[in-house]
TrEMBL record:
<protein>
    <recommendedName>
        <fullName>DNA polymerase III subunit beta</fullName>
    </recommendedName>
</protein>
<dbReference type="InterPro" id="IPR043519">
    <property type="entry name" value="NT_sf"/>
</dbReference>
Length: 548
């Protein structure tokens, strides 16, 4: 230790009156100072051990005593026994393993300050030789996954990231190697001190020359090669670059295509829209194929050099990679921020939704939409349905003008305007929609832009139109047709069929609606009308149509 026992006892005497402590507690010093690694900035870590089965709090108390930061933790003998039993039962492989191992390690390597007999009693609950074996295996598993992931990234053309994961894997590998020599302290920052205490060994010396890509002086690819070799020499098995060992695996996402646009839904919550080239790479994926086969298939599908795209799918958790015969490759950085699927900033492409699919930012885009999946699908279904209603209102308007029914015509014209504005709001994922009586004013929710500014101005004019004669009706129909054309260009619906003109146009309308209805039903989104459920159950066909 870097502090004398006399100093520590004196500090403990000043600390105990400041906390609620059970009489007869044993006290140990644990952590970096007990290990001999600490410095003047290190915490003083006291653990109080109560001889009983009480449930004592996990959270430490933080005190400041004689200019030192003191942390006080408490455990009962029962709680300690349960921690050791959990390690023995291989719980060190599951969630929370780091905290569990850390607690056990700190106690096993602690220095007794009060009631040494009770301290010895609890330490005897776990063999240190068994514990260091467990810690070594735990670090080796982490190193194996990191090195495998580095090999996958290198194969996908991500050399710099592969080098970074190799660096992580090497640290984990040397921690495993050090644990086998009794150096079980988990915190990586003290690794140089641990290696110094182990002494002069060739693997440790090699590690120090490869501790980071920059320190090694090697290029990224060469660094990965040397790192993989050293990891194997440090005892990490099952992570050598054998051809065909890394495969592409599913990640539990669902793919939805509307027209030519491909969407990928992650966790029933996040929607990614793929640009044309990214979509070709995505559609070429066949789970179970090796990375070599996957890259060749993407090349044949019109997405050459697709490695970076597939790597992006991997980062976002849209696909996984696996080690043949040993399951998914799940890398992690123990004692660091939890690893997980990357969630990129939401796309800024506007409008968000078009009839043919979400708006993608480019051919290689893998864009996260800025709305939840259910709201996206509900807004998309409403966008399609608003266009159907525009067609229906136009048909009513034409019929009323033909019969000179000016009041009916005026109401139909107003419906046509408002249904078109439902589509505008839906294309920006406004859902649920405001009432029809407010849609003109609620255009204020949308951002500024040339198309939207023109839509706002013309909607305000059309909202006050009057139809009391044939010439007024003809002028209104022309103005509304121009307005609908403007809206459809702005919302990607310019090729929407004239739904009620012919059987073929109605069939096209049903097909466009069914693509979105399937996604909405999958996500339990609200359908725009009850009858949409019948369209879904018929697979996009008219429910009463006779079979061919």
């Amino acid at each position: 230790m870097i502090l004398s026992e006399e100093y520590l006892q004196n500090l403990l005497d000043k600390t105990l009156p400041q906390i609620r402590a059970t009489d007869g507690c044993a006290v140990v010093l644990e952590g970096s100072i007990a290990e001999g690694f600490g410095n003047s900035s290190s915490d003083i870590d006291f653990l109080l051990i109560a001889d009983g089965d009480a449930d004592l709090p996990t959270m430490p108390s933080l005190l400041f005593v004689d200019g030192r930061r003191v942390e006080v933790r408490t455990r009962s003998v029962r709680q300690i026994a349960e921690q050791f039993a959990a390690v023995t039962a291989a719980a060190a492989n599951g969630p929370g393993a780091e905290d569990l191992l850390n607690r056990c390690q700190r106690l096993l390597r602690s220095f007794p300050l009060r009631e040494p007999e009770l301290v010895a009693k609890v330490k005897d609950l776990m063999s240190f030789d068994d514990f260091r074996t467990t810690v070594g295996e735990w670090w080796a598993r982490a190193a194996r996954q990191s090195i495998r992931y580095a090999l996958a990234l290198r194969q996908l053309g991500q050399e710099q990231e592969a080098a970074a994961w190799t660096e992580a894997g090497l640290l984990q590998a040397v921690k495993s190697w050090a644990a086998g020599r009794g150096e079980t302290y988990l915190e990586p920052k003290w690794l140089p001190e641990q290696l110094g205490r182990i002494g002069d060994h060739p693997p440790a010396a090699r590690y120090l020359t490869l501790a980071s890509p920059s320190a090694s002086g090697l290029g990224a690819d060469a660094y990965v090669t040397e790192g993989v070799r050293l990891a194997a020499d440090l005892g990490v098995t099952g992570a050598t670059p054998e051809a065909g060992r890394i495969t592409v695996a599913g990640a539990g996402v669902t793919t939805w295509q509307t027209g030519e646009r491909v969407h990928v839904v992650r966790g029933r919550q996040d929607v990614f829209v793929l640009g044309d080239r990214a979509a070709r790479a995505w559609r070429s994926l066949v789970f179970g194929r090796t990375l070599e086969q996957t890259l060749a298939a993407a090349d044949a599908a019109g997405a050459p050099q697709a490695g970076p795209l597939i790597a992006e799918f991997l980062r976002y958790g849209l696909v996984r990679v696996a080690w043949q015969g040993d399951g998914p490759i799940v890398p992690g950085l123990p004692l660091a921020a939890p690893a997980g699927d990357v969630t990129p900033p939401p796309s800024t492409a506007r409008p968000i939704i078009a009839v043919g699919g979400a708006t993608a930012g480019g051919a290689e885009a893998i864009d996260l939409l800025p709305v939840p999946a259910r709201r996206f699908s509900a807004a998309a279904m409403t966008l399609v349905w608003s266009n159907v209603l525009v067609e229906n209102a136009r048909e009513d308007l034409v019929g009323a003008l033909d019969r000179g029914q000016w009041s009916v015509a005026q109401l139909s014209a107003l419906r046509m305007l408002r249904f078109a504005l439902r589509g505008v709001l839906s294309s920006y994922a406004v859902n649920p929609l405001p009432p029809d009586s407010e849609v003109v004013r609620r255009l204020s929710l949308l951002p500024d832009g040339d198309d939207l500014d023109a839509i706002r101005a013309r909607a305000g004019q059309l909202d006050t139109l009057t139809i009391a004669s044939g010439p007024q009706g003809d002028a209104a129909l022309t103005a509304l047709d121009d307005f609908v054309a403007l809206v459809r260009r702005a919302t990607g619906a310019d090729r929407f069929p004239s739904s009620f003109d012919s059987p073929d146009a109605w069939r096209q309308t049903l097909e466009a609606g069914n693509d979105w209805l399937r996604l909405g039903a999958h996500l339990d989104a609200d359908l725009p009308i009850d009858e949409a459920g019948d369209l879904l159950s018929s697979g996009g066909a008219q429910p009463h149509a006779a079979s061919a």
